[in-house]
Amino acid sequence: MSQAPASSATVVIYSGGMDSFTVLHRALREGRDVHALSFDYGQRHSRELDVARRVCRDLEVPHQVVDIRAIHGLIDNSALTDAERVMPDGDYDADNLADTVVPNRNMMLLSMAIAKAVNIGAGRVDYGAHGGDHVLYPDCRPEFVEAMNAVAGIANFEPVEIHTPYLRHTKADILADGLSMGLDYADTWTCYLGESLACGRCGSCRERLAAFTANGVSDPLGYAQRPDAATDGESDDV
Predict the structure, then answer these.
(1) Strand partners, 39
(2) Are 188 and 146 in contact (CB under 8 A)?
């Protein structure tokens, strides 16, 4: 892959999920010199990281997985970092899925991504915060992004822009944009659980499936149970 000028470099926080997958491809379509950055912070499973490695290898995008599992004891008060907890089911709601909030996650990840950007001379950090996350995750809300952007502009000799192209868009909007780019969402993992099939019950699965329904297309991932099949126990192994 040809290298764009250094001034066009950007660091994309890439989890392997559908939002960051779309952000990654959007930056590539802009002609950016993309450096993908993923984090192993002791999350419940590594399926997303495995997907991220494969996608970046196929795209020939430089990709770094940072092992920060040493901080796990600081952020283990979450169903996403404690495998002993029961994963809550149902749609996104502050009361229902509060147990999936990882303390201060995006501030930590953005800080490290900004450091990498400064280190390689990149002027931008991209991440996939979107409007659907606002109800539940404080570190995906516009106020947080604006404050972090202000800090990123003064924390180093060279300012770094935090770029959130979908901050005020829904997951359905993100999917629509990705579909218009011809992206294959079989190359993503969204489920909060890391089993052979997506569970179809957790909030992340349900929001993903709703986005596909809103766009009138079928999700290419296989599900142990889709929400509309919950009453009859049907499974989908496509």
Answers:
(1) 66
(2) no
Dihedral class, residue 182 (left if φ above 0, else alpha if ψ from -120 to 50, else beta):
left
pTM for the full predicted model: 0.85
Residue with tokens 């950016």: 32
Residue 232 has pLDDT above 50, yes or no: no
β-partners of residue 124 are 10, 161
End-to-end Cα separation, the chain, in angstroms: 33
Identify whether the C-beta of residue 12 lies closer than 8 Å to the C-beta of residue 27.
yes
Q: Using CB atoms within 10 A of its CB, is residue 176 exposed (0-12), middle (13-18) or buried (19+)? A: middle
Half-sphere exposure of 102 (CA within 13 A, CB side): 20
More confident residue, 67 or 100: 67
Around Cβ 50, how many Cβ atoms within 10 Å?
Answer: 13
